[in-house]
């Protein structure tokens, strides 16, 4: 890993305009092409059933049975579960353990350069749900990042699952001109989190590995994104150096690391709130109400992201997140360079709100997403409302409503 990586990233991951043609994950779901471009329906909110398949992992004398994936709609598997925390595994204690650490990982072979000298903080990220047979659905009430929202970071979510906590970790890069990230590696993030819990001094046993329980590899990096990465990031992703015409599989060996915590870190001071602006400027698939020639749009404008997260004096963890912005949207033909406008520019309002809480009685996580094209009348205009809720009792609900103008 070259020490020039931070300099390369400061100049941006790519030059020019990308045309995103695949789902990228792990960010607030704003107007960035994550929806179904052909959707034109309303879906009633309902309680999510138990997912499948269920993996059984033996931890000591007990068997933990859980879905080896997590999801933002409680249906389709999105990210693999890569970590299982047992023992002193309350997500609040895991957060304190990581936030207590410095960024020196040189004793474990990591170079003392960005991003491997990062430190942990609370993260902004899309809400997901995990599932275990003991606890039902659990939400990502606590999310952490090593690094910053942009340009690259390690992202970790915790899912309380009865007597254990499940973890989903990945290494990702912000896609230029959007608020969305592209996962580059599951394996690298799993390794870094494992090393950090070893560094914490809280493990009561050496890390252990399960058999393969989820996809190997899992998901892909679209060529249009991969080809814009600097060679250093392509190397970390484990793909070819240079340009490729084929999607690059994201590294995942399918195994999950078991970390047994024998102690707890002391609570740490709360971090300052996050408040920053992401500037959109990107061609994306029209996220909803697409049709005819109106399949792609150029989205331009600022979106402000704000979050505060804290552990209170009584030991409860609470967080709030809000993203809002008004964007200019222009239908385009992406086959030309630069993309050719094929319709009038109009506005879109985007709002996303998250709330989460972790107490001794349990945890909950909620997300509401509203995307509205203005004016709401006109060809291929409409609005999208999505709501995800995972309550302390293990019930998960997801609802999606898409309304398109006639």
Describe this structure in words.
The termini are far apart. β20 (317-333) and β21 form a beta hairpin. The protein is globular. Helices cover 10% and strands 42% of the residues. By secondary structure, the chain is mainly β.
Q: Helix and strand string, N-terminal first?
A: HEEEEEEHEEEEEEEHEEHHEEEEEEEEEE
pLDDT averaged over residues = 90
Q: Count of helical segments? A: 5
- The SS-based structural class is mainly beta
Largest sheet: 9 strands, antiparallel
Number of strands: 25
Domain count: 2
How much β-strand is present in the residues? 35-45%
Distance N terminus to C terminus? Answer: 54 Å
Sum up the structure in keywords.
globular, disordered N terminus, mainly beta, 2 domains, 406 residues, eight-stranded mixed sheet
Give the gist of this structure.
This protein has 406 residues and is mostly beta strands. Strands 1, 18, 19, 20, 21, 22, 23, 24 and 25 form a 9-stranded antiparallel sheet that branches. Strands 6, 7, 10, 11, 12, 13, 14 and 17 form an 8-stranded mixed sheet that branches. The chain has a two-stranded antiparallel ribbon with strand order 2-3. It is globular, with a radius of gyration of 21 Å.
